[in-house]
Amino acid sequence: MAVTPKPNRRAVKKAQPHLSKGRFYFALLVVFGVFGTLVARAAYIQLIEPERLIYEGDLRSLRTNATTVQRGSILDRNGRELAVSVPVQTVWADPKRVHEGDGLANRERWLALAEVFRTDVNDLMSKVADPTRRFVYLERKVTPGVAEFVRQLDIPGVYLKTESRRFYPAGEIAAHVVGFTDIDGLGIEGLEAIYNQVLTGVPGERVYRKDAAGRVVEEIRVTEAQQPQQLTLSIDQRLQSLAYAEVKKAVRYHQATSGSAVILDVKTGEVLAMVNSPSYNPNNRHDLQPHKLRNRAITDAYEPGSTVKPLAVIAGLEAGVIKPNDVINTSPGWLRLGGRRVSDPINRGEQTITQILENSSNVGTAKIALATGINNMLDTYAAVGFGNDTGVAMLGESFGILQNRQRWSDFEIATLSYGYGMSATTLQLAQMYAIIANGGKRVPLTIQRREGTPEGEQVISASTAETVLGMLESVVANGSGKRAQVRGYRVAGKTGTSRKAIAGGYGEEYVTLFAGIAPVSNPRLAVVVTVNEPSGDEYYGSEVSAPVFSEIVGDALRVMNIPPDNLADAQLKAAGFGGADD
């Protein structure tokens, strides 16, 4: 009987794993593929485009603390604040927190909030309607009372943060000089705009990293804050206030369009006061009208009329065509030049140079100018600053108009001698009189406080300046400027009245001016008053601007403790027991 051999189990087992081996390789391929993908992705993230993850990580770990700096103060020459930053509260909201805390459920609280903000409740609530937003302003820079009310309402997601607000203690009195800032504290008008970088400073910053437990693990960067500078002006707030009060009163009394006044220190060139009416309140600009923003003392240029007649005399004296004691025949009271007529109100016949200024004779001044020649006239006008900037470096300053052409008719030369055919600002005119008062030296004007007395440039001989100063004193004592007299002080000055130019000629509106110097014995102040378009019967400089000059100068000299130099004119009173003033 044959025996059947048993199969080799080991051989069977070796033959069966043929399919399992394929699965193994497939699985191995998958594992290596996944691993390779992960390595490639990691390499891409780490080497090629790591910024996004770094950004996401920094959002969770980096923190920044800012050190705020208050805007620098603006002070007058005596340290009185003209602009200062004060801390205030701003109301803001986190819309995500508002929705998480169900902050919109109580509409009554939002109604109360809208009422104190003086806005519509629906507009207010719409600001926080989007729950994906994390920050929105509800009201900037509110009063302390409103801030306390917001705290008491306790609306979820509505918070307060401290900001600074610009405050102007002098209000409308110094508004045109100082200017103002926008709601973010950036200067947009006046000196606030010009010196914005100086006044702003640079906030400090600390950047550090925290771990999940809130512990500081790395100090990234610390930037120290750069404190702003304060700006000290040449303005004397006392003089600014009294000048503004007088100009505002004159504009209202004469129903004028506007008025301006400038007070200069003749030795240093400092602007002690610069005022305009109408003005505005920089602390409340809700109803601000654009025309009130203009600093008319430097932006508005007018034909200065008879206030520049002393320049014609100066040009004649410097050129040697006249002498101080000369007599000029102004008969018959008019002069015909090229078919045009220059005239005086009456025939005054022969007049000395001083009398020509006292009586403001157009004919006499025209004859001096024609003898002097246009080149000498233009050189003198340019030397005192007409047609150029004053050096005060303020926003919107006008250069005025001083034409420099080759051909001039005799009539044009004549009219130039009494302030027509050119234009100048109130500040430029004040500079001219400051030069006369300063012995013929021209000092660049400044709105910042100046330490010491600058050397200046001699543009008029000292003897000519002294001679013309004496003539101008006679104008106030005996001539058209009598209403500019100041009791107890010697005053020099000149009136001016010019018709305003319109298309095709001159209209019926006038600009009245008075420019003067005080005290004559030791000149300290040059003051110019301009009143634009006065209404009524009074429209001459002697009637409108001269009395304003007298009030401003009298008050200013007393405020500055300048001793009287005309005691013979001062009526000093002694008080006695039981006595009465009379």
UniProtKB/TrEMBL annotation:
One of its GO terms (molecular function) is peptidoglycan glycosyltransferase activity. The chain crosses the membrane at residues 24-44. Keywords: Carboxypeptidase, Cell cycle, Cell division, Cell inner membrane, Cell membrane, Cell shape, Cell wall biogenesis/degradation, Hydrolase, Membrane, Peptidoglycan synthesis, Protease, Septation, Transmembrane, Transmembrane helix. Residues 68-220 form the Penicillin-binding protein dimerisation domain. One of its GO terms (biological process) is peptidoglycan biosynthetic process. GO terms for cellular component: plasma membrane. Its EC number is 3.4.16.4. Pathway: Cell wall biogenesis; peptidoglycan biosynthesis. Gene3D superfamilies: 3.30.450.330, DD-peptidase/beta-lactamase superfamily, Penicillin-binding protein 2a (Domain 2). Coiled coil: none annotated. InterPro entries: Beta-lactam/transpept (IPR050515), Beta-lactam/transpept-like (IPR012338), FtsI_transpept (IPR037532), PBP_dimer (IPR005311), PBP_dimer_sf (IPR036138), PCN-bd_Tpept (IPR001460). The active site is at S306. It is a single-pass membrane protein. It catalyses: Preferential cleavage: (Ac)2-L-Lys-D-Ala-|-D-Ala. Also transpeptidation of peptidyl-alanyl moieties that are N-acyl substituents of D-alanine. The keyword Cell inner membrane applies. It is found in: Cell inner membrane; Membrane. Residues 259-553 form the Penicillin-binding protein transpeptidase domain. PANTHER family: PEPTIDOGLYCAN D,D-TRANSPEPTIDASE, PEPTIDOGLYCAN D,D-TRANSPEPTIDASE FTSI. Catalyzes cross-linking of the peptidoglycan cell wall at the division septum. Belongs to the transpeptidase family. FtsI subfamily. This is Peptidoglycan D,D-transpeptidase FtsI.
